[in-house]
Design goal:
The complex is a heteropentamer of chains A (237), B (105), C (641), D (496) and E (483). Chain B has 105 residues and is mainly α. Chain B is built from three helices and no strands. Chain B starts with 6 loop residues before the first helix and ends in a 13-residue tail after the last helix. In chain D, strands 1-2 form a two-stranded antiparallel ribbon. The mean pLDDT of chain D is 89. Classes of the chains: A mainly alpha (237), B mainly alpha (105), C mainly alpha (641), D mainly alpha (496), E mainly alpha (483). At the A-B interface, α3, α4, α5, α6 and α7 of A face α1, α2 and α3 of B.
């Protein structure tokens, strides 16, 4: 796997030995998972490090302020992850690159002054959704032939994507917003606003989650024998 | 914290993310990857919401609440969608979307 | 019983028609005697009207309209616009011609009815026959007494219907049905012209009343061409009914009907309705002289045509039919030069001797069951009475001196000579001669010479008294009818200025009847010559006639095929009318129906068919559709600002 | 006719509807019970129609027997008495009510011998009649259109299930063309309601409202083509021959006899009475369509060899006369048109009754296959001749009165057109007489020896129809006074 | 913050419905041990619905109050509460036989229906973007699940997949639109937006884009044409009761929401979105009705016919005003009754013959005349034939549109409703004219089926002949929106 990286031969050998000594030390994790994390870390590192270097240089030349640096970095991570998940041939890699994007988004939320939201983002997306996706992949045994060819209407898709992004950004940019300044949100008020003013949507959301739960179970579950015989017995009332 | 970053940046970022997400939905054949792309689009929405809340609506920050709800719904969405994808897989042994085209015309 | 109650004359037979039509089965002898009594009453009444008419005939003239008696409005729409009042009313009017016509129609109808008792004996629809005959009488009388043109048109159509029913009496026979159809359609086409003429006249004068129209016309109310077109249209109607040149094709075929019917309708009454109409509207024709000349020339051609065709036809009744066409031509020639008296007088005399001839031929047919002249011959021994009466009739037709035909034909020649110069006079004289020829041919071939078909000859027997009596009466009238015109006789009958004074119309001074010696002698000589030629050609075995035929076969064929007019009409109908109908039907089926209606329906469902395939069933396509939808909405939204 | 006689008017549409509902509960096997119910209903309708016709006082005011029950009031876009169930009759509607009464009476008697699901047949037939009656008496545009459509609603099933020949095609074409035509009427009604701006559908109020001439010029043709299609106007007539050929006897009687008059009635009521200037502007076009339709129908009929198709074409031709009469824009011509609506209604009903009687026994409608029928069916032949003579305008019968008025009206307006109209009458004569000669007279064809005389019900029906033909023919005054008064009051500005 | 009123009492009907849903779920889970019969579940659902219906009647004619500016509890909401609850009862009663036979998870099925009804009610009641969105999600979620409940039939899985994925994309679009509108107007409550629009935010490109995405998202939920592709497949795949439910409640709820949203919030920016909806309406009418001609499966035919009907309703939203509001509500009521009548009759037919092909309706008039009569009346009413609900409601709807100057749109609508008559006639032809397949004998419906179809059948005639009560209720309800 490392051979394929564009590295000078000695550095590659060093890395291989460092990470995969013959004795190949093991993280106390199932074989499958540790390779995934290692690879993920490697890829992320390979992608992020050059951008980081550039940004640091700019920071030093104090063109950028600290928050801007964080913003550019985060947006780079987001866009990189998004493109990865959309373009990569290997289905598993695509799914994993989604995680990168979502974590980038969490950084953005931090930047925009709502730590709670960043936390929720990391927890819900980083944890829950990713695991779910992996389970999905595993159950639809996408892992044994992960290479997925692209859909027939790729050029149209490309056109639409560009058009949408273009129009939206143009329109949103030339809307005169009056150069507002961001402000952080106190956690306590957020709680009050969420549970008192928007109590009703909260309850509806809870119903939505319950329905999603029941639905998923009802659909995905393999039928119990006694269910099917019920139908057979179905009394023609 | 991010006082001096102009809001347009965030909006453009979310626009681009939205565009990529839409591309993903149109181009991908695997159901799960389409789900992934939908998640991207929803993330773009949340960025938008939070940006507007932070910049324009600091005292009532409704956008933030909106973002929270969007995230919960997105999560529920993935869960139930995967249930249906599994059902599809069990019926047709494939998760490719364009195989599932019995219902037409 | 004065002129006011003149509406009673048509009413009696009409009522009888209605009653007999429905209940003739319940009445003994199928109600023939009731109908005859009714008609007898009408004859008496017509004489009473004549007397009353004489009474009021003081200073020899009539103020217009004062003779318009009994009337009630039938349809009245007051359109509110000044004097734009549509008034169709039931009004009656009596003057000289009406009285004459009343007499003629009632007498001849009565004779025919009496005759039919014998002739139609044992027919399956005996009662119905008499009912329709009475109906016909009613319609004819109504036509004659009607005061306004629309009522005239009404009775005109009723007469047409009656003739349709009577011609098609033996409707089991397909030929009779076809003949009836042909008669009704041809007269109907003529009636189209009549109705158009009437409405055009109404449009100018603002009313249908004849006197008002005449008044308006004489006052110069109509435009020149407008009036000519109107009167030509009127004449077309008259020509249709009186079987003049373009419309004469139906009369010979109409012989399919029972012979008494032919005698009544196609000799004396219906066919002369056209003459009566033109006579009635003569004051208006005087204003539209162009139209009157057309009447003259049409009359001439028809007379000549009828006479020539009479020479070659082999069926007795068709010969007489052609002779009627020719004689009607004579009457129209008289009208063409504007002399109502000559025309009406000829009508008066012709009615009697022509119906006599028809009844004669009827008794021949009744006796021998044969109509074709070639199979008859030598019947004089078997049917002496019929023969003598038939000879009297034919002599009258030929125009031999003492008989009625001579006086009226001579009168027309006289009037023609003054009115229209030399050419028409010569043609008419020749036609008169021809008339004599074909009459003699008919008489010789039928009654004299040797019997050609023994079976028919043996079967022949003299007709019963009930048929002979009316013929005898008509023969008597055929003899004395001529003398009426002479002044002394006229005065004897109580007409101060003689018949001529009486038989004229408003605003048209009387025509003193005089006998021009030269024409009289000339006419008699040509008639005698005709008879002699007839004898030469057709006496004995008629071998000379055969040789004449070889001499010019194609001319003979031309005559036999009636100048191919029938073929021309048939061609026109088949090719033009039915062709046009096929085109229209084809157009309707393919253009309006298939492409217009069904086409659009299929178009819509085809559009649905095309759209259906956008629904490919694959999710990426659906998503793409949504994406395009949004992008388009966004672009147009931006574009619109 | 006093106002509280409006209940009689209301009862006209309600009796058939009531009978239809009543029939639903009658088990389909009970043929005698069905006969009693239908017979009673049809007689009741006939008696009321006759009473309404003669009670209508042609010296009184324009709308008589007016009663109204509010339905929707100041709700949504509807203001004061927005939609109300308003009934009333004017000079033009009274004869039409009589016509419907006569035709439904005879139609019901004739279809008593219908075995196949006769209960449903009568239910649908009575719904159709209710629609027709309602349209003639309604004085509220909403209900007018609702009942106008009700008359079309059962047509499909009536023809598709009980019809003969290409019944599905005929039924579908008829239904689709009539409903498609109602698109134009729909649009016109919306336009009128919005343009009037009164927020009410009350017809008298809409008649008095003034619309600007350009609006009228656009809307009038919509009405003419929309209602005209039901009236069998020239370019939009193909449904009529096929539809009638496929329909069962009673339905084609009702349809050709009454429903086509509904179309012409619609043109008068929505077209001329509502938009006089539009009427004046488009009258020549209507006139041309009329005369073209008349000629087209007559010539088309020359070629037809199927009884019903020929009668269908002759209906198109006679309706052409009606449009011609309406186009003349003078009182005589227009009253001639309404007279023709009545006259033709009765004639065609008689035609279809007789053809149906023949078809039920011989199941063959080809004219060329018959000859010498008068021998086997003399009474049938006599009635047929009466209908035929009336249809080509023999004086003394209903056709002549109407046609003479139309010709006079046409001559007053355009002499050439008048001439053509009279010519069409001659063509009508030719194809009818040709049919008489070929089918009634001549030797009896052995093939049809089995055919017997028509049943008593048909004889009674034919007699009633013939009596009305003779009545209008011999003494037209009652009809003419009412129609002239209705027109004079209804469209004073239009009449030149 | 605190002056918002939090009178939870206002939400009583919804609580009852939730309670019923919970009860149904619990009973289904422990069915074997408690040995309760199958029919208890539908009974509880219906009972719960009835109680909720009665409870919502309490709020009738009360002065309109809002709940924390999120939803408004007024005549408008009551009108829809009753309408949706009635639909729920009708569908449950009409299909409990079908459910017993074909669906294994009865408990989940009824719970879903109850939950989606709550979602629908809140959609109608919502006066705030977030509440509106979340209630749309609730309704959509329960329908996503409902569509793929028919475990035995692979079509249901495929339909579910399509509906879920496309639904996700659509809601993402909708959210994006909402975020932009929130951004440009700075408020999420309808009144807030309306106020912001008053003082001139209208017309900026961003706001227009927001509108475009909003219309796109809602267009999906209402199945307007470019976004309608999922409807036919979802209808055909889903089990019949769910199809009925989608065509009835989900459509009606979407239009209730759109009327409120466009009526109150975006009324000021009318010029910007009117053309969007007009073009959508025309496209929907044309495509929906044209493709319907070609269909041979009754569910797919009804899918396209409902798309056609959506075209007509969109017209009312285009010409949003008091008159067209009341016209729309009346039409919705009429449409629901007619649509349910057709579906329940088709369900009854399916229970007997197990087929959805129009071909198999042959000779239904012979074998089951009552059912044939109900279907014919309903189809005629859908196509706008007189004496039936369709005529009155369509007439009023089109007249309202013409009143606002969209005469051309009304004409297109009338043309398309005539086209719709063509394919309804093809079904009727099959029932009445075609002979029954040999061997089919006359069969009887179950009493419940008789009851439901009978009530709906009378309902069609009632709206057709004496629509005044419903029209007055609709007018009162829509008056709430337009002040």
């Amino acid at each position: 796997m490392i051979e394929r990286l564009p590295l000078p031969a000695p550095l590659a050998a060093l890395l291989r030995r460092a990470f995969f000594p013959e004795g190949s030390f093991r993280l106390p994790l199932p074989a499958q998972l540790d390779r995934v994390i290692i690879y993920g870390g490697l890829v992320a590192g390979a992608v992020v490090t050059p951008i980081l270097l550039v940004l640091i240089v700019l920071l030093v030349l104090n063109v950028l302020t600290a928050p801007e640096l964080v913003f550019w970095l985060a947006s780079a991570v987001i866009i990189g992850g998004a493109l990865g998940s959309v373009l990569l041939k290997n289905i598993v890699h695509a799914a994993l690159s989604l995680v990168m994007t979502l974590l980038g988004v969490a950084a953005i939320f931090l930047l925009l002054g709502s730590e709670f939201l960043a936390l929720v983002q990391v927890l819900v997306y980083g944890g829950g959704v990713t695991v779910l996706l992996l389970f999905g992949l595993m159950l639809t045994n996408a892992t044994d032939d992960p290479i997925v060819s692209d859909g027939a209407q790729k050029p149209f898709a490309f056109l639409v994507g560009i058009a949408l992004a273009g129009i939206l950004s143009v329109a949103l940019v030339d809307q005169i917003w009056g150069a507002p300044t961001a402000s952080t949100v106190a956690f306590r008020e957020l709680g009050a606003r969420l549970y008192r003013d928007f109590g009703l949507p909260f309850e509806i959301a809870s119903l939505v989650l319950v329905i999603a739960l029941i639905g998923a179970i009802a659909i995905a579950r393999r039928d119990r024998p006694e269910d099917t015989e019920d139908t057979a017995m179905g009394d023609g009332a | 914290m991010a006082g001096d970053i102009p809001m347009e940046n965030f909006l453009v970022l979310s626009a681009i993310l939205f565009g990529i997400g839409f591309y993903g939905v149109l181009a991908r054949r695997s159901a799960i990857l389409i789900l992934v792309s939908v998640e991207l689009m929803l993330a773009a929405v949340t960025i938008n919401m939070v940006a507007f809340a932070a910049y324009l609506d600091p005292e009532r920050f409704t956008g933030l609440i909106f973002a929270i709800f969007v995230i919960t719904v997105a999560a529920a969405e993935v869960g139930r969608a995967l249930g249906i994808v599994l059902r599809l897989f069990r019926d047709r042994q494939t998760a490719m979307v364009d195989e599932a085209s019995d219902l037409k015309w | 019983m004065g002129m006011e109650q003149v509406w009673l004359l048509p009413a009696i037979p009409a009522v009888l028609f209605a009653l007999m039509g429905l209940f003739n089965r319940l009445v003994p002898r199928r109600g023939d005697f009731i109908v005859i009594l009714g008609m007898a009453a009408v004859v008496v009444l017509s004489f009473l009207v004549l007397l009353d008419f004489q009474g009021s005939f003081k200073d020899g003239h009539f103020a217009p309209g004062d003779s318009n008696f009994y009337s009630f409005s039938w349809v009245e729409i007051d359109t509110g616009v000044v004097d734009d009042l549509l008034l169709i009313e039931f009004s009656t009017f009596v003057d000289g011609i009406t009285v004459l016509m009343l007499a003629v129609v009632s007498i001849v109808t009565l004779m025919v009815m009496v005759y039919s008792v014998g002739y139609m004996h044992g027919e399956v629809r005996y009662g119905w026959y008499f009912a329709v005959l009475s109906g016909f009488g009613a319609a004819m009388l109504m036509l004659v007494v009607s005061g306004n043109l629309l009522l005239l048109y009404l009775s005109w159509e009723a007469v047409g219907l009656a003739s349709y029913l009577l011609i098609g009496f033996y409707w089991e026979r397909q030929t009779a049905a076809e003949a009836a159809k042909k008669a009704f359609i041809t007269t109907r086409i003529g009636d189209v012209g009549l109705l158009i003429g009437i409405i055009l006249l109404w449009r100018g004068a603002g009313s249908f009343d004849i006197q008002e129209i005449i008044h308006f016309a004489e006052g110069g109310g109509y435009g020149e061409t407008y009036l000519t077109v109107a009167m030509l249209m009127l004449f077309a109607g008259a020509a249709g009914k009186s079987a003049q040149f373009p419309f004469h094709v139906w009369l010979p075929d109409a012989m399919e009907g029972p012979t008494p019917v032919s005698a009544l309708i196609h000799a004396a009454t219906m066919v002369v309705a056209g003459v009566y109409l033109v006579a009635r509207m003569m004051p208006v024709f005087d204003v539209a002289l162009v139209a009157r000349d057309v009447v003259l020339y049409i009359g001439l051609t028809t007379a000549a045509l009828g006479a020539t065709l009479g020479l070659v036809t082999s069926d007795i009744k068709r010969v007489l039919a052609y002779s009627t066409v020719s004689q009607l031509g004579f009457m129209f020639v008289a009208l063409g030069v504007g002399s109502v008296t000559a025309a009406m007088f000829h009508l008066f005399t012709h009615a009697f001797f022509k119906s006599l001839l028809f009844l004669g031929s009827g008794s021949v047919i009744h006796a021998t069951e044969e109509q074709v002249v070639e199979t008859l011959g030598g019947l004089r021994r078997k049917m002496p009475a019929t023969t003598t009466l038939f000879v009297i009739g034919s002599l009258a037709l030929a125009g031999i001196v003492p008989l009625a035909g001579f006086w009226s034909k001579d009168e027309i020649l006289l009037v023609l000579q003054d009115g229209a110069g030399f050419g028409p006079f010569v043609i008419l004289a020749a036609t008169a001669a021809l008339t004599a020829i074909y009459t003699t041919r008919l008489v010789l071939l039928t009654f004299f010479g040797e019997p050609k078909d023994q079976a028919a000859y043996d079967h022949a027997h003299e007709s019963p008294a009930v048929m002979i009596l009316p013929m005898a009466l008509l023969a008597l009238l055929a003899v004395i009818a001529g003398f009426v015109a002479l002044d002394p006789v006229g005065k004897a009958l109580g007409f101060t200025g003689g018949i001529g004074e009486v038989v004229f119309t408003q605003g048209h001074e009387g025509h003193a009847f005089k006998l021009d010696p030269t024409i009289a002698i000339g006419a008699t000589l040509s008639a005698l010559a005709g008879i002699v030629i007839g004898f030469i050609y057709w006496s004995g075995a008629a071998e000379r006639a055969v040789r004449a035929r070889q001499w010019s076969p194609e001319f003979h064929d031309l005559l036999v095929n009636r100048y191919y007019i029938d073929h021309l009409y048939q061609f026109v109908i088949d090719k033009v009318v039915l062709g046009l109908a096929t085109v229209v039907a084809y157009f309707d089926r393919w253009v309006v129906n298939e492409t217009g209606v069904d086409g659009s329906a299929q178009g819509i469902s085809f559009a649905g068919y095309r759209l259906k395939f956008f629904q490919t069933g694959r999710i990426p396509n659906y998503a793409l559709a949504m994406a395009i939808g949004v992008v388009v909405l966004a672009l147009v939204a931006i574009g619109r600002t | 006719m006093t106002d509280n006689e409006g209940y009689l008017l209301l009862s006209l549409p309600l009796i058939p509807l009531g009978a239809a509902v009543l029939l639903m509960f009658v088990p389909s096997g009970e043929r005698t019970l069905i006969r009693i119910v239908t017979g009673a209903a049809s007689v009741a309708m006939f008696v009321i129609s006759v009473y309404v016709f003669f009670a209508f006082d042609y010296r009184g005011e324009q709308f008589q027997g007016v009663l109204a029950w509010p339905w929707f009031e100041n709700v949504g876009f509807l203001g004061e008495n927005g939609v109300q169930l308003k009934v009333g009759v004017d000079g033009i509607a009274a004869p039409m009510v009589l016509l419907t009464g006569i035709v439904i009476l005879t139609g019901t008697w004739v279809s008593w011998k219908q075995e196949h699901r006769s209960k449903d047949f009568f239910i649908l037939l009575f719904v159709l009649v209710a629609g027709v009656y309602g349209t003639f008496v309604a004085l509220d545009l909403f209900f007018w259109f609702l009942l106008y459509e009700t008359a079309v609603l059962p047509m499909y099933l009536l023809i598709a299930v009980w019809g003969s020949g290409r019944r599905e095609y005929g039924a579908m074409k008829l239904m689709m063309m009539l409903v498609a035509a109602s698109i134009l009427i729909f649009t016109a009604i919306f336009g009128i309601f919005t343009e009037a701006g009164l927020g009410t559908f009350d017809l008298p109020a809409l008649f008095d409202a003034t619309y600007d001439p350009t609006f009228q010029k656009i809307m009038f043709p919509l009405i003419v083509l929309g209602c005209g299609t039901l009236g069998g106007i020239f370019p939009l007539h193909p449904w009529s021959p096929d539809g009638h050929a496929a329909a069962p006897t009673a339905v084609s009687m009702l349809h050709a006899g009454v429903l086509m008059k509904l179309g012409a009635f619609g043109i008068i009521r929505l077209g001329f009475q509502m938009m006089p200037e539009g009427g004046e502007f488009w009258a020549p076009a209507l006139l041309t369509l009329g005369i073209v339709g008349a000629l087209y129908g007559a010539i088309g009929a020359l070629r037809q060899t199927d009884f019903k198709l020929m009668t269908g074409f002759s209906s198109v031709s006679h309706m052409g006369y009606v449009f011609l009469g309406l186009g003349t824009l003078n009182l005589i011509g227009m009253s001639g048109a309404v007279l023709q609506m009545f006259a033709h209604g009765v004639m065609t009903a008689l035609f279809f009754l007789l053809i149906g009687a023949l078809y039920d026994q011989s199941h063959d409608r080809e004219i060329t296959h018959y000859s010498g029928l008068a021998k086997q069916m003399p009474i049938w032949a006599v009635f047929f001749v009466i209908a035929g003579l009336a249809s080509f305008g023999l004086p003394g019968l209903s056709g002549f009165i109407a046609e003479v008025h139309i010709f006079i009206g046409a001559f007053r307006a355009y002499p050439i057109v008048g001439g053509l109209a009279v010519l069409t009458a001659a063509i009508t004569a030719t194809y009818l007489l040709r049919m008489f000669a070929r089918t009634f007279f001549g030797e009896a064809d052995p093939r049809w020896s089995g055919i017997g005389e028509i049943t008593w019900a048909e004889r009674a029906g034919a007699t009633v129809l013939s009596i009305s033909i003779f009545a209008l023919g011999l003494w037209p005054a009652p009809w003419i006074d009412r129609i002239a008064m209705g027109l004079e009051m209804g469209i004073p500005e239009v009449l030149s | 913050m605190s002056e918002l009123n939090f009178e939870y009492g206002l939400l009583l009907p919804e609580f009852i419905l939730v309670g019923a849903a919970a009860a149904v779920l619990m009973l289904d889970a422990f069915r074997e041990d408690l040995r309760i019969s199958r029919n208890l579940l539908p009974a509880i659902t219906v009972l719960g619905a009835l109680i909720a219906g009665v409870a919502s009647l309490l709020f009738l004619d009360r002065d309109p109050t809002d709940f924390a500016q999120l939803i408004a509890v007024d005549d408008y909401t009551t009108f829809f509460r009753i309408l949706f609850i009635a639909t729920l009862i009708a569908i449950v009663l009409g299909s409990y036989e079908f459910v017993n036979r074909n669906i294994t998870h009865q408990g989940e099925f009824y719970a879903l229906l109850l939950a989606s009804t709550i979602g629908a009610i809140y959609m109608a009641a919502a006066r705030e973007l977030l509440t509106a969105y979340i209630s749309i999600e609730l309704l959509s979620f329960s329908l996503y699940v409902g569509v793929s409940l028919a475990k035995t039939d692979t079509r249901s899985g495929e339909a579910g997949l399509k509906y879920v994925l496309l639904g996700g994309v659509a809601s993402a679009m909708l959210l994006y639109g909402l975020s932009i509108i929130y951004g440009t107007t700075g408020a999420t409550t309808y009144d807030g937006i309306a106020a912001a629009l008053e003082d001139g935010v209208v017309g900026t490109p961003a706001f227009l884009l927001g509108l475009a995405f909003l219309v796109g998202g809602l267009g999906f939920k209402a199945s307007a044409v470019p976004f309608h592709m999922w409807t036919p497949d979802a209808y055909e795949g889903a089990p019949l009761p769910i199809t009925a439910y989608i065509s009835a409640t989900s459509k009606a709820a979407t239009f209730a929401l759109m009327l409120a949203l466009f009526g109150i919030a975006l009324d000021a920016a009318k010029a910007d979105w009117q053309w969007m909806l007009a073009s959508l309406a025309v496209a929907t009418m044309v495509v929906g009705n044209l493709i319907a001609i070609q269909q041979s499966n009754i569910k797919r035919l009804l899918a396209y016919s409902s798309i056609g009907q959506v075209g007509f309703m969109l017209m009312a939203i285009t010409t949003v005003s008091d008159a067209s509001g009341s016209a729309l509500l009346l039409h919705l009521a009429g449409y629901l009754i007619t649509n349910l009548a057709v579906f329940i009759a088709v369900i009854a037919f399916y229970n007997r013959t197990g087929s959805e092909e129009i071909e198999d309706f042959r000779g239904l008039a012979e074998t089951q005349p009552y059912l044939a009569l109900v279907i014919t009346t309903a189809l005629f009413s859908l196509s706008g034939m007189p004496l039936l609900a369709g005529f009155v409601t369509k007439f009023v709807l089109f007249q309202a549109a013409a009143e606002e100057g969209f005469l051309w749109l009304a004409t297109v609508a009338v043309i398309m409703s005539t086209v719709s008559l063509y394919y309804y006639l093809k079904v009727i032809r099959q029932m009445y004219v075609a002979e029954p397949a040999d061997g089919d004998s006359r069969w009887r419906l179950s009493p419940i089926a008789y009851l439901t179809t009978g009530v709906l059948f009378l309902g069609i005639f009632l709206v057709g002949l004496w629509a005044t009560p419903i029209f007055e209720a609709a007018d009162g309800a829509s008056a709430m929106l337009f002040g």
